[in-house]
């Protein structure tokens, strides 16, 4: 599958799942716009290194996904957006009666409302080009719930609902909108949590992975960022032209339970 000639904007993509998705899109030949809220030399160097590795154009554009104007400006600065991957997200864990209001507001803004703004800005570009793909990175928590994650679960359920609405609004066009629902993915952020969690539970790191972190993931294996990225590339392919308004779970069987 070649995505040569297509421009992909991936929000929250200077690390983790977003970076993995951006790399697979670049590998498939797409020009890529990386994004995060920082504006460091290493962010721009990351783009330069990716461009050199895959032989495609890669740019880094700073935008704060908690701000609607920044979200829309990101798409405008990209200049084109054939593929939009709404990935930006944050997390906070607390009982709902103790959940900080500012954390709720930030999670809803970054994990859900940002996708509304970027999609609204990108659709006119896709319509002008006569082709488009919106890929929303939801979560297993977009289909099920866990305690103490009220804002995250609400936002990810919202992303799944918005995915269906956008798909219906574009159903007669060469534009699709789908959501990928990962379970636990092996990212640097998750890996960094393993030693502390092992110490907390007085377990080995292997036991923590199987019995604590991957408790609800029947495969007892992490998904990889490359697998999430490969799924995104598939959704951009001609084979997926009639796949729209749905979710694809990459969760080791979590949502089969």
What's the N-to-C terminus distance? 33 Å
Main sheet summary: 7 strands, parallel
Instruction: Give the % helix.
Output: 40-55%
| Low-pLDDT residue intervals, each spanning 5 or more residues | none
Radius of gyration: 18 Å
Characterization of this structure:
With 257 residues, the chain is α/β, with parallel strands linked by helices. It folds into two domains: 7-185 and 223-249, NAD(P)-binding Rossmann-like Domain (Rossmann fold, 3-Layer(aba) Sandwich), CATH 3.40.50; 187-220. The protein contains eight helices and seven strands. The chain has helices at 16-27, 41-54, 68-78, 101-129, 150-169, 188-201, 205-213, 225-235; strands spanning 7-10, 31-36, 58-62, 83-86, 132-137, 175-182, 247-250. The protein has a seven-stranded parallel beta sheet with strand order 3-2-1-4-5-6-7, with helices on both faces. Strand 1, helix 1 (16-27) and strand 2 form a beta-alpha-beta unit. Helix 1 (16-27) packs across helix 8, helix 4 (101-129) packs parallel to helix 5 and helix 6 (188-201) packs across helix 7. The longest helix is centred in the middle third of the chain and has 29 residues, at 101-129. The radius of gyration is 18 Å and the shape is globular.
SSE topology sketch:
Elements: E1 7-10, H1 16-27, E2 31-36, H2 41-54, E3 58-62, H3 68-78, E4 83-86, H4 101-129, E5 132-137, H5 150-169, E6 175-182, H6 188-201, H7 205-213, H8 225-235, E7 247-250
Organism: Salipiger mangrovisoli
Protein name: 3-hydroxybutyrate dehydrogenase
EC number: 1.1.1.30
């Amino acid at each position: 599958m070649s995505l040569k000639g297509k421009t992909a904007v991936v929000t929250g993509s200077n690390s983790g799942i977003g970076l993995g998705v951006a790399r697979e899109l670049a590998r498939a030949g797409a020009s890529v716009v990386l994004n995060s809220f920082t504006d460091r030399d290493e962010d721009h160097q990351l783009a330069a290194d990716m461009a050199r590795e895959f032989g495609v154009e890669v740019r880094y554009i700073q935008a704060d996904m908690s701000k609607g104007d920044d979200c829309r400006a990101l798409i405008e600065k990209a200049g084109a957006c054939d593929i939009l991957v709404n990935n930006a997200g944050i997390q906070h864990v607390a009982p709902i009666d103790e959940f900080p209001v500012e954390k709720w507001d930030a999670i809803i803004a970054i994990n859900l409302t940002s996708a509304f703004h970027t999609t609204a800005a990108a659709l006119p570009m896709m319509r002008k080009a006569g082709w488009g793909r919106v890929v929303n990175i939801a979560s297993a928590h977009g289909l099920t719930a866990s305690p103490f994650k009220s804002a995250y679960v609400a936002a990810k359920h919202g992303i799944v609902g918005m995915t269906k609405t956008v798909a219906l609004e574009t159903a007669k066009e060469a534009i699709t909108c789908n959501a990928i629902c990962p379970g636990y993915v092996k990212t640097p952020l998750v890996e960094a949590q393993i030693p502390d969690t092992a110490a907390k539970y007085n377990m080995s790191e292997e036991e923590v992975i199987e019995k604590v972190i991957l408790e609800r993931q029947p495969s007892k294996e992490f998904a990889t960022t490359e697998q999430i990225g490969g799924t995104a590339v598939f959704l951009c392919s001609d084979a997926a032209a009639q796949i729209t308004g749905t979710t694809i779970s990459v969760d080791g069987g979590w949502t089969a339970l």
